């Protein structure tokens, strides 16, 4: 998207810039509104280094610094204040375009592949998928309940939903939206809990997903456990095993 030539008169370097990446502008707006890179990263659901990289790209293209870094946060420079006006206009135009196009074409159709872990599909998001399918009956949905990496560029899936334990470990080229925070807990069947409170068994077995194993903090709890876990590679089997009283396990609270 080209910038108004009037802006170029104030900052000659802009005359050589023919295209501005809207994604860079989104990152700029997030920093301007949040007052810091950290706030922008949380708002956009990305790593803070991604925000810094996008800002650097925008500043290089415009030939001007957008922010001053102060102890209290990021403050817009004079150039940044002028860019903010254009950025907000770009945002408003983008929103109007999306609204207008979506309003004209409700007849979306085709194949939509969504990849996510089985528990997310089964216990959390299936009502949302069902509502989406009712709203768009011409879309053929395929839910890939797997944890393995997929190549979105090669269209192995269109959307990937993942549980992230360490956002700093995410690839810098990853773009996405941050979903809700998920919390977990330690669970066992009511009968097993009642038996443990009554004094038997003295030790309880862990039910674990094979690839994760027994939690590192397991020995710190008040419940004495055996060193022989019950292992499964499947999340649904893990839940059923816990319901059958085989032992205690960690599960997301939404289950």
Task: Quickly list its features.
255 residues, alpha/beta, Arc Repressor Mutant, subunit A, D-Maltodextrin-Binding Protein, domain 2, 3 domains, 3-stranded parallel β-sheet, two-stranded antiparallel ribbon, 8 helices, 9 strands, 15% strand
Mind summarizing the main beta sheet? 3 strands, parallel
Strand order of the largest sheet: 4-3-5
Query: Are there runs of 5+ residues with pLDDT below 50, and where?
Result: 1-18
Average pLDDT works out at 83
Tell me the total number of β-strands.
9
| Fourth-tier CATH superfamily name of the largest domain | Winged helix-like DNA-binding domain superfamily/Winged helix DNA-binding domain
Q: What structural class do you assign from the helix and strand content?
A: alpha/beta
Rg over CA atoms, rounded to whole Å, is 25 Å
The CATH class assignment of the largest domain is Mainly Alpha
How would you describe the overall organization of this protein?
There is one protein chain. The chain is α/β, with parallel strands linked by helices. The protein has three domains: 5-104, Arc Repressor Mutant, subunit A (Orthogonal Bundle); 110-169, Periplasmic binding protein-like II (D-Maltodextrin-Binding Protein, domain 2); 184-252, no CATH class. The chain is built from eight helices and nine strands. It has helices at residues 5-10, 22-34, 37-44, 48-62, 78-104, 118-135, 190-197, 235-243; strands at 67-70, 73-76, 110-116, 139-145, 159-160, 184-187, 207-209, 230-232, 249-252. The strands form four sheets. Strands 4-3-5 form a three-stranded parallel sheet. A two-stranded antiparallel sheet has the order 1-2. Strands 6-9 form a two-stranded antiparallel sheet. The chain is elongated and about 70 Å long. 18% of the residues are buried. The model is unreliable at 1-18 (pLDDT under 50).
